[in-house]
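Title: Prediction job returns without error message
Component: structure pipeline
Severity: low
Priority: P3
Assignee: unassigned

Description:
Job completed but the reporter wants confirmation the result is attached to the right record. Sequence as submitted:
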Amino acid sequence: MITEANIWVDELGTDQCWRLVERAAIGRLGFAADGEQLILPVNYAVDGHCIVVRTGRTVMLEALGRGATVAFEVDGADAVSETGWSVLIKGHAAEIDPPGTPGSPPLALQPWASGPRDHWLRIMPWSISGRAISRDHRLPHGHAVPYVPPD
């Protein structure tokens, strides 16, 4: 039983945001296609300070292959301690050559979705921001359960 809690919402710095994004595997890619807003879950890789995803000949490729504006979000949460973090990246997405092609990223990114995924997209951010919610629960026996984003 939790007897009291202090709650903090902190803005995360750029370096903290990138460390969190590098440690996660799934994000959500938001973009406009055919006059509608879509948000799709994707697995991804980090290449420098860019996000890389693989896709097939899908609505995502058609909408993003030409340098469209996107939002990319990654987050993590711990339901037991009621803590978590969220990072939002805004940028442009464009199709790139697959790994092994001169000038392409040396990435080993295996798509989780079935079917051919032979097109690669790079998200080139213009901004990255994040927030973390932390709690310092005081349990009856004196132990604390804090959430601190990993370094």
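Comment from assignee: result matches the submitted record. Helices lie at 14-23, 59-64.
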